[in-house]
Design brief:
The chain is of the alpha/beta class and about 350 residues long. About 40% of the residues lie in helices and about 20% in strands. The strands form two sheets. The chain has a seven-stranded mixed beta sheet, with helices on both faces. Strands 10-9-8-11-12-13 form a six-stranded parallel beta sheet, covered by helices on one side.
Length: about 350
């Protein structure tokens, strides 16, 4: 099932969730399908009015201006929305929404609880503090941000993607990296290549949102020029191809953004599917999913990989943790959180 912008799915009699999120890979589809399976009717909106490169660049340079520019587009969506039936509004990141747009959504969906979830660090979402006041609850994947700003802490989730059994038994690569290139990600990869050469067999698929972005990155990151042929791409890899590569790898390399502490989707999916993780995120050492048999933390400035890590038997993640980190567990906690906060707000208003 695919979900298109402003599309409503599931049964008309069910509770209605308005999901507003970026078009990041196919995460919005996973969330929408999960909510439908939980019995909700779902309408999904892209929080950005364009996926063009120029729009994304302007959103980072001047997010308030771009969000203001998009207000009319969201007004049109609200006209076509069955807003009286909306029971929950769940906004993920919301970078493309202006304060006026959020206020309009809140007014139109006046019977709904409002929740904001951040799957990025606050340093990378410049306008977030201007918007939190519109929501009943705010949750973050970043434990540091959650503690500092008194938000709920909720890690991300993992997706179950089936892989042919023969792929899992054919371990071709010692480690693999498949992801978008930002910050110092490629520099870390380059250091590992330089240090270990052919000692480890690796697979790298470094994705760039456009040819222009790839060209611009090459101007500031000289390691990209030394990248082996076929490892840089402006076309994303399909989910099944990603799964096939991961299935053939002993470990997955994860390099978090220097300005975030939360666990990426890659971190959780790797461990839940029984693969080892090599990561620069030292915060995982204090998490419930850490075990030395399955996680190796490396220094992003001086990365080292111990050969014994690949041979030590993998300590399986418990079924209770797999359930907690499922998309259903994630969605249920967020919806319950915003309902609880909304109910408390109503009670306080009646008392006052």
């Amino acid at each position: 099932m695919s979900v298109t912008d402003n599309q409503s799915i599931s049964f008309s009699q069910a509770k209605h969730v308005l999901l507003i999120s970026p078009l990041t890979f196919s995460y919005h589809t996973t969330i929408s399908e999960t909510l439908c399976n939980m019995g909700y009717r779902v309408t999904w909106w892209n929080d950005r009015t364009s996926e063009a490169t120029w729009y994304k660049l302007l959103l980072r340079i001047s997010p308030k201006t771009v969000a203001k520019f998009s207000e009319n587009s969201f007004k049109k969506k609200l006209i076509n929305l069955d807003s009286e039936t909306v029971s929950h509004v769940l906004v993920i990141k919301g970078e493309g929404l202006s304060k006026t747009t959020i206020s309009n959504i809140k007014d139109a969906c006046h019977l709904a609880s409002m929740g904001l979830y951040l799957w990025d660090g606050v340093e990378n979402v410049k306008t977030v503090h201007d918007k939190t006041g519109f929501f009943d609850s705010v949750a973050s994947f970043d434990p540091h941000d959650a503690k500092i700003f008194n938000w709920a802490y909720r890690p991300l989730f993992w997706r179950k993607i089936s892989v042919p059994a023969e792929k899992s038994h054919n371990l071709t690569f010692d480690w693999c990296f498949i992801g978008t290139v930002h910050s110092d990600r490629h520099r870390v990869i380059h250091k590992l290549r330089q240090r270990y050469g052919s000692q480890f067999n690796s697979f790298v698929f470094a994705y760039f949102q456009s040819t222009f972005i790839l060209f611009a990155r090459k101007l500031i990151d000289s390691t990209l020029w030394a990248s082996p042929k076929g490892t840089l791409s402006t076309t994303p890899m399909s989910a099944i191809d990603v799964s096939n590569v991961v299935a053939q790898s002993k470990a997955v390399l994860d390099i978090e953004h220097p300005k975030q502490r939360g666990f990426t989707m890659r971190t959780i999916e790797t461990l839940m599917t029984g693969k080892k993780l090599i990561t620069t995120n030292k915060h995982i050492l204090h998490s419930d999913i850490f075990h030395s048999s399955r996680v190796l933390v490396i220094d992003r400035f001086n990365p080292e990989i111990c050969t014994n890590f690949f041979t030590e038997p993998f300590q399986e993640v418990s079924e209770s943790l797999k359930k907690y980190y499922s998309c259903e567990g994630w969605a249920l906690e967020l919806l319950q959180l915003q309902d609880t906060k909304n109910n408390q707000k109503v009670i306080n208003e009646k008392i006052n």
